[in-house]
Write a structure and sequence with these properties.
By secondary structure, the protein is mainly beta. It has one domain. It has no helices and 7 strands. It has a 5-stranded antiparallel sheet, with no helix packed on it. It has a two-stranded parallel sheet with strand order 6-7. β2 and β3 form a beta hairpin. The two termini are 22 Å apart. The mean pLDDT is 86.
């Protein structure tokens, strides 16, 4: 399970080196994952579907009080043991373009 937060690129400053893995997502758009070149951790991602946003791995913040999620995506492939907070939006596939 990956937990990420979406931010407008104009709100983010990216520093340091990264290695990039690009692939075509289920949506048909390209997505690029940026990994730490030393440890291999996924730090952030960006894609052509939402070109103005970065997705940032919540674990990168090292904040135990980080805000709870407001939506969940790709639930069709979610493990049966994953539990999410109540009151969030659920999407079997990716986030709809209209829900930005």
């Amino acid at each position: 399970m990956r937990s990420g937060a979406a931010y407008l690129k104009s709100q983010v400053r990216v520093e340091g080196a990264s290695r990039v893995y690009a692939r075509t997502a289920d949506s048909g758009y390209e997505i690029r994952f940026h990994f730490c070149p030393n440890c291999g951790s996924n730090v952030y991602w960006e894609g052509d579907r939402f070109p103005d946003e970065y997705g940032i791995a919540v674990g990168s913040f090292a904040d135990p009080e980080f805000a709870s999620p407001i939506y969940s995506v790709y639930e069709e492939s979610m493990h049966h043991w994953v539990r999410l907070p109540s009151g969030i939006n659920h999407f079997p596939k990716g986030r709809p373009l209209a829900n930005r």
